[in-house]
Amino acid sequence: MLLFFVRHGDPNYSTDSLTPQGELQAAAVAKRLARYGIDRIYSSSAGRAIKTAEPTARLLGLNPIALEWMHEKHAWKDFALRAPGYTHEHWAFQTSYYIRRFNSPEVRALGMDWTSAPEFAETRFAEGVARVQAETDSLIASLGYVHDRASGTYRAEQPNDNHIAIFAHQGFGMIFLSCLLDQPFPHFSTHFDMGHSGMTVIEFCETSKEGKDPVCVPKVIQLSNDSHLYAEGLPTVYQNRIRF
Q: Which of 2, 19, 111, 229 stands the most exposed, by the fewest C-beta atoms within 10 Å?
């Protein structure tokens, strides 16, 4: 199975939609995914994610499935806060205060148990991780792969060659991908990122097709790839501030 995680196109947050540039990005994504072939489309219930998914759905004749738990407002509630020295709430992974704490030796040593750090006791990090982990495991199990968190592997109960597309958000994507890949959120969110319409491709490939329970460890084979923008002659710009 191949999982395509696509961040929404350049957004107009005030209308929860896309800018004209974002609409061009969404159309470019659609052309790229149409070449690959997609069997099922999931989307956050936010307008900007739905608008990004629509061109792909039209081109392939699919009906996107909107999932409320992927809406970024829920991730914001759990992983955004006003850090000391800041006047407004920000994603924790974008503030120097939490970046330092996320990468401290003490937090790094806790691995996947990072939310147990005493300094995070007053946050909603633990609740957020538990919520997204449970929903992620349920979704991936419905696609044929059952998560064994203890070993950081998946049991391929129904191995398949399906292509699945998910259209969602940066903030949500950080916790979703960290849960999916069994990577501690503090490390993942401070060392990786995704641009508008960036496409992350994850392969679910069982290591052995013999026996009753083939083991699968999902691998990232592309991270926030924007070759669809290049192919259409669109600007390849990271977060609207770094032009390549």
A: 111
Residue 189 lies in a domain: yes
Looking at residues 104-127, what average pLDDT do you find?
97
pLDDT recorded at residue 83: 87
Query: Where in the sequence is the domain holding 170, given as residue range(s)?
Result: 2-204+223-243
User: What's the rounded Cα separation, in Å, for the pair 218 and 205?
Assistant: 7
Q: What's the CA gap between 7 and 44, in Å, rounded?
A: 10
208, pLDDT greater than 80: no
Q: Would 210 be classed as within a structural domain? A: no
The enclosing domain of 129 has a CATH number of 3.40.50.1240
- The amino acid present at 50, given as its one-letter code, is I
DSSP conformation letters of 69-124: GG-HHHHHHHHEE--TT-SS-EEGGGSHHHHHHHTSHHHHHHGGGGGGSGGGTTSS
Specify whether the CB–CB gap between 221 and 202 falls below 8 A.
yes
- Give the DSSP letter string of 23-42: HHHHHHHHHHHHHH--SEEE
Does residue 140 lie within any of the structural domains?
yes
pLDDT at 238 > cutoff 90 = no
DSSP H or E stretch at residue 2: strand 2-7
Rounded to the nearest angstrom, the gap between the alpha carbon of residue 97 and the centroid of all alpha carbons in its chain is 23
Average pLDDT, rounded, for the chain: 95
User: Mean per-residue pLDDT for 27-47?
Assistant: 98
State how many domains the chain has. 1
Q: Calculate the alpha carbon distances from 50 to 80, 147, 167, 210, 237 in Å.
A: 23, 27, 7, 40, 22
